[in-house]
Amino acid sequence: MSLPEPLGLMPLLWLIASGRAVTRLELATLMHQPQSTVSLRVQALINAGVLTEHGEGPSRGGRRPRLLAVNAEYGHVWAADLGSRHVRIGALDLAGTLLRVYERPLNIDEGPEKVLTELADTVHELAASTQLPGRWLGVGVGLPGPVDVVSGNVTLPSRMPGWRGFPVRTALRRRFSQPVEVDNDANLLALGQARGGAPEETLVVVKAGTGIGSGLIVQGRLHRGRGGVAGDISHVRITAGADRPCSCGNRGCLETVASGAALVARLRAQGVPVANTAEMVSAAEDAHPTVTTALRGAGLVLGEVLATVVNFANPDAVLLGGLLAGSEVFVAAVRSALYERCLPLATRELRIERVRDGADAGVRGAGIWALERVFEPMVSGPPARLVEVTRGATG
Q1: CB neighbours (10 Å) of residue 359?
Q2: What is the C-alpha R_g of the chain?
Q3: In the β-sheet with 317-321, what is the strand arrangement from edge to edge?
Q4: 353 and 366 co-located in one domain
Q5: H helices of the chain, where?
Q6: What span, in angstroms and rounded, lies between the C-alpha atoms of 74 and 174?
Q7: Rounded to whole angstroms, what are the CA distances from 8 to 12, 39, 346, 388?
Q8: How far is CA 111 from its chain centroid?
Q9: pLDDT tens digits for 282-331?
């Protein structure tokens, strides 16, 4: 039988890694658990080499407490954030710190077999040539389409031709000896933001790039929904979409107006020579009037859709990531629409910001997903079992 969620190891490790709790008493207080129970978990992790003790904290009337730290030398994971035309690959240590990040061209249209073989070969090549701490514990992969995290299969993607129903996790597990986990890229972007911020926040995290995706964090936990598509706003029908056909089969979706792909196509039709989303954002930063106007309009439309989400969920923050979030005019337009269209109470304390880590936020989220899945089996059984499972998670 699994232990209750508050006793899971990853919440405990994230609290220590972030510095929010560095003693057993602080952990017990924040996790709402008996100190004796937390101490058993902590000691098991110390015995396994996952945690270390160093120095002493201030006394509260008794013996001075020993300070805890995550042993970053214990091991690392590799992570990949796939886009439509590129992939960012990185390595993270046990504390969730990005150690290395690389970017490589990759065309998602070439189909799953070729793309996943190329991805696995690249990760193996980088792993062989990069000095990293400890053992290789696992692999996390974010995909630009809906994923069933139970089966590891892609489900009904609108921008991934040939990928529908493909068993991505199974295919990757044949190519790695380490545990492999996959999920939607916007979900993993959201997960990474949740683990790096204050606990128990509610966040709406948007990835605005070639396409538009979003993830929803409810009181610190990633909410996927019954079918795994919670938070997906890309196919909300909007007035500005008119009768434009969308890759999902419907017409007038947000993605037909506000996505990077839609904007690039519209600008090219107007004679503006932009090849991709990155070039478009760069042109806006150089004050190209037509491009700037297009990005502002896209931000306003996205903000209108997000206003409904904010009024409904009343989150602590709306966080913007992806290539379009690199444009000041786009971010400003989203912020303007939210303040104009949301209830005053919904925006009174609302933060509207870019994601932490910038372009690396997605790969960091994928790495954190891998870490959480590696350590998840340790939440069952008595504390002695933790040492056994930890030693076995070496790949």
Answers
A1: 17
A2: 22
A3: 221-223, 212-218, 203-208, 317-321, 351-354
A4: no
A5: 9-18, 24-31, 35-48, 112-129, 168-173, 185-196, 255-258, 260-269, 277-285, 289-313, 328-341, 344-347, 361-375, 383-392
A6: 25
A7: 7, 13, 32, 16
A8: 23
A9: 999 999 999 999 999 999 999 999 999 999 999 999 999 999 999 999 99
The one-letter amino acid at 86: H
d(CA 247, CA 228): 19
For CA atoms 162, 163, 167, 169, give the dihedral sign. positive
pLDDT in tens, 133-145: 999 999 999 999 8
CA-to-CA distance for 183 and 368, rounded, in angstroms?
12
Query: What is the span of the domain harbouring residue 20?
Result: 5-70
Q: Which two three-digit tokens encode residue 105?
A: 């061209």
Where is average pLDDT lowest: 7-16, 43-52, 167-176, 217-226? 7-16
**Number of domains comprising the chain:** 3
CATH number at 15 reads 1.10.10.10
Residue 28 phi/psi, 5-degree rounding, is -60, -40
